[in-house]
Amino acid sequence: MTLMDKKYLQLLSKEFPNIDSAASEIVNLSAIRSLPKGTEYFFSDMHGEYEAFLHMLKSASGMIKIKIDLTLGKTVSSAEREALAALIYYPDKEQKRLKKAGLLTDEWRSLTIYRLIIVLEAVSAKYTRSRVRNSIPQDMVYILDELLNVTDDIVKDYYYDVIITTILDTGIADHFIKELCKVIQSLAIDSLHIIGDIFDRGPRADIIMDELMKMHDVDIQWGNHDISWMGAVSGNRALIANVIRISMRYNNFDILEDGYGLNLRALAVFAGEVYKDDPCTIFMPHTLDDNIYDPVDTQLVAKMHKAITIIQLKLESQLIKRHPEWGMDDRELFSNIDTEKGTVKLGGKTYDLLDKNFPTVDKADPLALTDEENELMTVLANSFMHSDKLCEHMRFLYTNGSMYKTINGNLLFHGCIPLDEKGELLSVKIEGEEYSGKALLDKLDEVANKAYFLHSGDEKENSADLLWYLWCGPRSPLYGKDKMAFFERYFIDDHDLHTENYNAYYQFSENADVCMKILEMFGLDPEKGHIINGHVPVKIKNGESPVKAGGKLFVIDGGISKAYQNATGIAGYTLICDSHSLNLAEHKPFIAGESEHTPTLHLVERFDHRANICDTDRGEELLAKINDLRELLKAYRSGIIKQKKDIDRRTL
Ligand SMILES: O=P(O)(O)OC[C@H]1O[C@](O)(COP(=O)(O)O)[C@@H](O)[C@@H]1O
Ligand SMILES: [Mn+2]
């Protein structure tokens, strides 16, 4: 045994001080490994649509309703089963509604508790008792533990009656029901994978973040929109302008002002003065049906939208000039505008601009911010970096997020692995070296962390600049398109110029062999693994499918984002992986207040045997721990490490 091994075992012996404690932990861990694996849920591209997303979470994408139907289908009417589902998803709201209607009777309460316990039994069947106990509020642990674990049917009936009657007598039934609903919700989703783009377009990504932070086990693979917010909070001013611009474009003040407490007054005052007599027609915000009642004056929003867009265009061109290694000169368009004629030169041709009023652009130095623009950006940057809530959410994105994740044999990332026209890996130069494929994603992960966690200096600034590249650069794995036609889409009325071409990955990855090679590159079993992506809306109504490459690749951006539902024809996908199979839940557009939103489930792959925890990454970790404990047992038995008295675990 090496000195290191001995030191490690000594550390472990603090937790398991003698043969008995180490041996019983081995038994515990082995028992856990033999349970069926928990259900994993994969979501992507929520784009601030918190109501629809929260509904998917609360309902476990329809799985709770399926459990209700399975357990109560033979004895309870379908209307009552639907009502029970609505109660589990929205206990407060439903209880209030029933109370108002005079339906909150003791008979309803006892029947409901009885039914909820049956559903709870079904959703908790796969878990250890301790995992279930940990999900139950302290004051209910004893009662529920008893109710869930009586096995004798005759005793059970009597026991249930006594406990439920006592719950009613003591007046805690409504609280008990509410908490039961929450426990069912939280146990229904064992782990959650978010394949990126939580932010932008829809109203309240901050509410989604709050909800994710409450989840028991969640990981996030950053999307280009998430990285844009992360770069903004890291201090990159082009990205600060970008997130504000997108919020103005969709008339979303709530996330900035109410969600994050960012003060937009300085922008409103600046825009109101500089663009006073300018109608800013092309900058009128989109109004999705969520925000038509927004009290903000749309004329003023249009001015703010224009002000921040012009600043962003200048800052982006400055960035491109500062980083010739990105090879993005062709995207440096703002220097080519002729402010007097109101035109722009692109690819040798001159185009008329849809907006010709540029009061802040100096003909001699078009990329320079005016003093006022500079001051405004300083104010905005300060408020971004000092919003506690925003920093808390960004930290969560960093701690629980990454460029990609390999989990249980699958590979998860938002956009693409940049490939050239021949299908070869494309590289990006970072800190003087070329990176491609997995190494590129690993390096970018490191860069993203440096952008946020370094305190100051060139390295921090250059790393934050790279987050802008990740937002829209032609070889960005998060963006995956040759250009972002941001300038053209606003200013030029020529649809050919608006076209953005997807990276060759999107053709090559239709081929199972290519997917298998990529899985191998990430150290996964190509036969068993899958790639799971978001980012590209799947246009079901045009006959597209989220299942690609013969089932090796899933693209699950089905359009939770309302802005894209007309194009996709549905309202998003959830990929669900339980111990038996992989399923896709296809969601209907979410209409608040309507109770029935159960998605259509499609089976996409049935496993050849039921997957247990020992078949998962967690199972591997547990096995490693079991092996360490076996070594510890040997060390105790041979006297290399001395046993100590047991610690009192009740106090832990
Ligand atoms: O529809 P909008 O909000 O104008 O955004 C369009 C822009 O968004 C993008 O699609 C990027 O966002 P996604 O990652 O959600 O696709 C760009 O390619 C495009 O220029
Ligand atoms: Mn995206």
From TrEMBL:
Its cofactor is Mn(2+). Pfam families: FBPase_2. Its EC number is 3.1.3.11. Pathway: Carbohydrate biosynthesis; gluconeogenesis. Keywords: Carbohydrate metabolism, Hydrolase, Manganese. It catalyses: beta-D-fructose 1,6-bisphosphate + H2O = beta-D-fructose 6-phosphate + phosphate. The keyword Manganese applies. One of its GO terms (molecular function) is fructose 1,6-bisphosphate 1-phosphatase activity. One of its GO terms (biological process) is gluconeogenesis. Gene3D superfamilies: 3.60.21.10. InterPro entries: FBPtase_class3, Metallo-depent_PP-like. The keyword Transferase does not apply. Belongs to the FBPase class 3 family. HAMAP family: FBPase_class3. This is Fructose-1,6-bisphosphatase class 3. The gene is fbp.
